[in-house]
């Protein structure tokens, strides 16, 4: 079994892959690449994403839970926000709905995909998945509020003819997102940290800091530096691969919103794996921290970022959801409330969330 020190040695894949990805980015930046080179970029993009989350896990191990889940969520969301902004900067009017599509995809992946598979894995192992309802309900309520203010409300405002905010409304949405996310972070890490710690089948809180052997500060700092390198590589390589993704989606006759789904799936895949691993270790609350924290960070950081970027980017910024996605969001909020309030879940709850996630994927391809 490898230690945290082993995971940051030069011979470990997570140490040299980000550096190689950065070198590849330097040679490919601003150039039109042939198919084989684009495929190579995609391989290193995936490697850089995995390396980013790997080093985030090392840092998370150093700072403990629930700080660890917060580090992972923020790291993944920084990737997502950077991808959205860079793609919007180059896409013109055709990328007007990219932020909405990607954020909503992240919400559905986290609230139904990650939560569903985590509850299913946890409950199949122990018959019932047990988690802390105080922390989970609080986080879910905050996510539902931000999703409603940022994604549902623009559809019903009357100041603009399309599903977009006026500048004043957009500023309010951005401030509200930062405010609620800031309150959530303080609640999770300072005032009510115990609400977000894993619990046993008997409901006893497990403070993982008491049992974990964290890596030395030097190892954590090296991982933090490699995490930054990985993030830069991910953003740059995704910018190089995105034209091929867009052409592929267009050639297949799929809706343009599928691009946002692909981006969100790519960015959140490593975090999904981390959540499943935690559920297998009977740390379902850690899995929920990852899912709900990512949903919260996705809205709380993306909306302010695109609001700020819209100052210098031309074209509309469509944030309002259509009728189909509004129904999916409403179902997710209703089902999620019933799931999180008891603090215990069976495979049925996990299967229901996964069914909603499957419905979202089917409707994304065939609206």
Automatic annotation (TrEMBL):
Source domain of life: Bacteria
InterPro entries hit by this protein: Alkaline_pH_Ca-Antiporter, NaCa_Exmemb
Membrane topology according to the record: Multi-pass membrane protein
Chief localisation class: membrane
Subcellular location per the Swiss-Prot or TrEMBL entry: Membrane
Transmembrane intervals: 12-30, 36-55, 67-88, 103-124, 136-156, 168-186, 219-239, 251-269, 290-312, 318-341, 348-366
Pfam families noted in UniProt: Na_Ca_ex (PF01699)
Keywords: Membrane, Transmembrane, Transmembrane helix
Annotated protein name in UniProt: Calcium:proton antiporter
